[in-house]
Structures are given as structure tokens and as C-alpha cells.
């Protein structure tokens, strides 16, 4: 698969707790009804797509990435959700876990909850999912995962489903998670990365114990889904609309009404320390003002002060020479996005590209904070570089991290 409510001060509707494992099994045993169907999951990589074409090709549901960690929101989520609803697809929403960043599961869950609520997904027939694919050092941290699941379940009144690869199941003791009735969405690609399609792949050829069965199977990441793409994650759901409704703890036929978020400062303020959020701002995750101001909410001044300090290279010397000071937990790609190879080259950093807290990195800007250019409609990165007479690799700050994807209004440094 490839903002913050600290204590949930406002009362939320309470929904009856259900045993989704038992409910799903019972639903599958009702005769005369088709009890499995196909769908796909999506993130920013798919951009805005034609969900009706996907529906016409056999898709019944789509599971959309909403957040990652405590400060990233899928920039295409809103158009994807609107398209899914318009096409009549059942909707799932997932948060991508980042325990390796030192985030608490409660902070990540709160961020996911608030962003999902802002989009009209909570208590609306939507199933929440946790995307669990951290690095090997954190893969077996089942307690972290369960705390996220518990936090989301309390807020939504819905038992989330956890996604992981078949090999990750053996990385930890998942009995407490399975025993708490959190379903499993397993991933495994027995056909490798050959071209695939929406189809019935049968039962997963893997052990899913301690779960008695998988709620869904992602059987390929190379699926051709018309209207969406040719390298799409395709999935098989072991149930139908009725089963989905039971997992979502909602009446059958409940339809979400996804809306573009209208973030107030209190609702939209991200959680986490200012230094971590500043890294995300520098990376481009929060875009430019006024979007950045809306997303940072009442933490805008605090975070931007940290951003400005770091971009000035403020270590007491006040050099103001386009120098970045490395903070604990930083890595080149996280701080500089798609321009990290340029920064590495400027500073003589080679594989394995290790940087250290306190290290001063030249960003190549020079002068009093460097130079900048605003992306215009129709611009490409190579075109901007040619216009300015600079190497393309010297341009950085595009929030997608992909040199082939820049947005009008973005301010790039060089």
C-alpha cells in the first residue's frame, strides 16, 4: 500500500459493540447471496481517477489512504473519496503507521480520526483500517498497533481492520489483536508482480493464525483497474455489502458523504513536536499558504518559527547562508524530499547516506536564504530549470517528492 483530539472532549454517538468475526461468518453462511467481491486501494500515487470506470469493470469498494504518521494527509484523498461516492463504491479509509518515527499510537490515531471526521467518514458506513508495514525493527510491535486500533475503535464506534503482509504475521504475537476482534486484511502476491486484474483469487494460500480467517486479501499490487491505473493494489473482500455494513457497524446501504475538510485552528492543529512538524513543512507536506496556514491551525506561528530557524541554519552563528542543521531522527529524504540527492552531493555524502544530529548541511541556496521561484500553470521542473539556467537537481521544495509532479503556486528554492 503503497487533527487532533487529545481526549475526544465532544461526546460521540455510541454504537453497539459487535463481534465482527462471528458476524462475518454468519453472513457468509446465508444461502442464495454472493458473498465476495473485488475492489482496490489507493493513495496519492493514483491521483484523481475515474471511479465510475472502475465500478463498471467490477470494483465494489475502494480503500483510500487518509493519513500517514502525524502530519501527512493524502493530497488526492478528497477527489478520490468524492469519486468513489459518486460511483457508488463502498468506502474504506486507512492510516499508514509510522512507529519508527517515535510517534505514539494515540497521536497517530487522533490525527487519522480528525482528518477522517473532517471528510465525513466517521459513523457513515466506512471501515477504518490500519496499514501496518513499518521497518523490520518495529514490525513485531503488536502493542503499538493494538493501542492505535483501540483508540480508533473508541472514536468511530467501529472495529478497525489491520492490514499487513503474510510474512509480518509471524513477526510478532498478534493474539491480543485478533482476540480483541480486530479483523485482518492480508497481503501476499503468489503471482509476483505480473500484470493482474480484478478477479476472484480464491482463498489466501497463507496461514493467517491467530486469526480464524482473513476479511480481505490484497493479492497483487500490479492490477489493471480501468479508470484508476495499471499498477494498482487489487483486493478480494470475503463478504458482500451486508458483511461490509456489519464491519462498519452501520445499517446496510449507509452512504458516506465525503466533504472537503474545513479545518479550524483547533480542529486542524497537528499533534507532535514542532521540530517533527517543521521537517514535514520543509519537505512540502503542508503545501504553501493559505493551505499551510489552515493545516497547521493554531500551531502555525510555532511551527513556522522552527522552520525559519532551521532554514537559516541558526546554531548561534547566524550565518544565514542556506544551511540546514540536522535534528535527531532526520534523514535526507524526509527533510529534503525529491531533492535529497542534490543535497547529498553538495555535502559529499555517499551511500549509505548517513547524517548526524548537529551536522550542518548546505542546501545550495546561498545568499540570505537562497532564491525561489513560483510554479506557474503548465510548468515542468525541467522547464523551470532551463528558464532559470540552473541544473534541475538544484530545484527543491516540491511537496510531492516526485520531480515529475509539481503544482501551480508551489514555491521552489534553488
Automatic annotation (TrEMBL):
Signal peptide bounds: 1-36
Organism: Bifidobacterium actinocoloniiforme DSM 22766
Protein family according to the UniProt entry: Belongs to the glycosyl hydrolase 25 family.
Record PROSITE patterns: GLYCOSYL_HYDROL_F25_2
Recorded superkingdom: Bacteria
Keywords assigned by UniProt, alphabetized: Glycosidase, Hydrolase, Signal
Biological processes, Gene Ontology terms: carbohydrate catabolic process; cell wall macromolecule catabolic process; peptidoglycan catabolic process
UniProt-listed Pfam families: CW_7, Glyco_hydro_25, LysM
GO molecular function list: lysozyme activity
Protein name, as recorded: Glycoside hydrolase, family 25
Domain LysM: 323-364, 372-413
Amino acid at each position: 500500500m503503497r487533527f487532533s483530539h487529545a481526549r475526544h472532549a465532544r461526546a460521540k454517538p455510541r454504537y453497539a459493540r459487535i463481534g465482527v468475526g462471528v458476524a462475518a461468518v454468519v453472513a457468509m453462511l446465508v444461502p442464495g447471496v454472493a458473498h465476495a467481491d473485488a475492489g482496490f486501494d489507493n493513495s496519492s500515487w493514483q491521483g484523481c481517477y475515474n471511479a465510475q470506470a472502475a465500478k463498471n469493470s467490477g470494483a465494489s469498494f475502494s480503500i483510500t489512504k487518509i493519513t500517514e504518521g502525524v502530519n501527512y494527509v493524502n493530497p488526492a484523498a478528497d477527489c478520490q473519496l468524492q469519486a468513489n461516492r459518486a460511483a457508488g463504491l463502498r468506502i474504506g479509509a486507512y492510516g499508514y503507521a509510522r512507529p519508527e518515527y517515535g510517534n505514539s499510537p494515540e497521536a497517530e490515531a487522533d490525527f487519522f480520526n480528525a482528518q477522517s471526521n473532517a471528510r465525513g467518514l466517521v459513523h457513515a458506513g466506512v471501515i477504518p483500517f490500519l496499514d501496518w508495514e513499518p521497518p523490520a525493527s518495529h514490525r513485531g510491535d503488536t502493542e503499538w498497533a493494538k493501542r492505535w486500533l483501540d483508540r480508533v475503535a473508541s472514536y468511530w464506534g467501529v472495529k478497525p481492520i489491520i492490514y499487513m503482509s503474510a510474512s509480518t504475521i509471524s513477526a510478532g504475537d498478534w493474539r491480543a489483536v485478533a482476540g480483541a476482534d480486530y479483523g485482518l486484511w492480508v497481503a501476499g502476491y503468489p503471482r509476483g508482480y505480473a500484470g493482474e486484474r480484478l478477479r476472484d483469487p480464491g482463498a489466501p494460500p497463507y496461514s493467517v493464525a491467530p486469526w480464524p480467517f482473513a476479511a480481505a486479501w490484497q493479492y497483487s499490487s500490479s492490477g489493471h483497474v480501468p479508470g484508476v491505473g495499471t499498477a494498482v493494489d487489487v483486493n478480494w473482500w470475503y463478504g458482500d455489502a451486508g458483511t461490509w455494513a456489519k464491519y462498519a457497524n452501520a445499517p446496510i446501504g449507509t452512504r458516506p458523504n465525503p466533504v472537503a475538510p474545513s479545518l479550524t485552528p483547533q480542529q486542524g492543529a497537528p499533534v507532535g513536536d514542532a521540530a517533527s512538524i517543521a521537517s514535514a513543512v520543509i519537505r512540502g507536506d503542508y503545501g504553501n499558504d493559505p493551505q499551510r496556514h489552515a493545516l497547521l491551525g493554531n500551531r502555525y506561528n510555532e511551527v513556522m518559527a522552527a522552520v525559519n530557524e532551521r532554514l537559516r541554519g541558526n546554531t548561534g552563528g547566524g550565518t544565514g547562508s542556506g544551511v540546514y542543521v540536522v535534528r535527531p531522527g532526520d534523514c535526507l529524504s524526509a527533510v529534503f524530499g525529491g531533492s535529497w540527492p542534490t543535497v547529498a552531493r553538495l555535502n559529499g555524502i555517499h551511500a549509505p547516506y548517513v547524517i548526524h544530529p548537529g551536522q550542518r548541511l548546505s542546501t545550495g541556496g546561498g545568499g540570505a536564504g537562497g532564491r525561489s521561484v513560483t510554479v506557474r500553470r503548465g510548468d515542468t521542473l525541467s522547464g523551470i530549470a532551463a528558464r532559470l539556467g540552473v541544473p534541475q537537481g538544484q530545484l527543491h521544495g516540491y511537496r510531492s517528492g516526485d520531480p515529475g509532479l509539481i503544482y501551480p503556486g508551489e514555491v521552489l528554492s534553488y
